[in-house]
Amino acid sequence: MPLRYLFVDMNSYFASVEQQDRPRLRGRPVAVVPVQAQTTCCLAASYEAKAFGVKTGTPVWRARALCRDLECVPARPARYVEIHHEIVRAVGRCVPVDRVLSVDEMACKLLGDERKPENAAKIAAAIKAAVAKACGRWMRCSVGVAPNGLLAKVASDMRKPDGLTVIRSEELPARLHALKLTDFPGIGPRMEKCLHLHNVFTAERLCALSVQQLSRVWGSRVHGERWYYQLRGDEVHEKPAVRRTLGQSNVLPPEHRTDAGSRAVLVRLIHKACGRLRDVGHWAGHLHAGVNYLGAGRRGWEASTPLSPCQDTLTVLQAFAGLWGRRPRDADLTPLKVAVTLTRLTPTRATTLSLFDEDRNRTALAQAMDAIKKCFGRNSVYFGALSGAEDAAPLRIPFGTPPVNSPAYQ
Ligand SMILES: [Mg+2]
């Protein structure tokens, strides 16, 4: 099977940006920490700090105990995003970037002659040189090349820092045998426990499972098949799920049982629903919003409006503002529950997209905001309409959903 994917993973990204920008920190143990606080965890650690056992997630007090000379520097998210764009441009000069997976990871597809191992290695070397030239030589990356996206990411993790690892299909599955189960993207601590329950303790055993066994472990034939083929180097194309509606509802906490409170939570739910819509690659053609009121026999309020196919939060918020003006305003109504539903969903490939710059800009803006939220948390950026309701309707989808279902890993 050809080498179809090249994966770039920046090494100790946040800490490297700090070392690049401030020569005083170079060669020293550095931990990047959230701005305010002692009782907090490290966001990133330089290689020098990692040598002392300091990692992402290590509490700062413990990190200081592990390494007495640790330099704790406050995070500068805006700077990391700025450098991120320079890195994406630098990589793009060597090979087109197919998907940006996070602030420090991107996947590229290799085509034609690029798939020859020696050429893929040349591209990897060119990427490292381009990133160093654009951002400085402290910005190092590990590159993985493999027949599919999942294995390319696994390969990028095998040698750090400044690594280059090529996994050829002839070397499969033996090349994976020494890995830990959690080295595979999509296997976190919970999935690892589940594998243990099925008597799978090693990557070698994982690779030896049949489709049936993998399906049992993952509780789904689709996932079982995907793992089976991906571990063998196949590129798995996902069948698009047929989805017709996408909704979010919330019983209001007592402090939000007001007109303004219910609106704030609805706005928050719209942000969530639109984020989900983009995650699943669909567009919405209709918006429904509703409020149920406290008290027996109360009928709720419901309204809906068509949308020209969109997936950006701003367009849906504006449509919602039109609906909201029509709500009942009796002073004795106490809102209890709110809901938003997006319907007439179509997958991206079946959607006739707008040719207007304005609409395209809105979609691009939504995608940029998603990328920022992925890196810096769900409240890092939002539309002003949401202000004051950031914690209303907390997200139930865990932060950092394993990106194993994203096309770049297929
Ligand atoms: Mg990284």
Helix and strand layout, with pairings?
Layout: E1 5-10, H1 13-21, E2 30-33, E3 44-45, H2 47-50, H3 60-66, E4 71-74, H4 77-94, E5 99-102, E6 105-109, H5 117-135, E7 141-146, H6 149-156, E8 164-166, H7 189-197, H8 203-208, H9 211-218, H10 221-231, E9 246-251, H11 259-279, E10 282-293, E11 301-310, H12 313-324, E12 335-343, E13 346-347, H13 357-376
Any overview of this molecule?
It is globular, with a radius of gyration of 24 Å. With 410 residues, it is α+β, with helices and mostly antiparallel strands. Among the domains are: 62 residues, MutS, DNA mismatch repair protein, domain I (3-Layer(aba) Sandwich); 58 residues; 150 residues, DNA polymerase, Y-family, little finger domain (Dna Ligase, domain 1). 34% of the residues are buried. Helices cover 37% and strands 18% of the residues. Helix 9 packs across helix 10 and helix 11 runs antiparallel to helix 12. The site of magnesium ion has 4 residues, from strand 1.
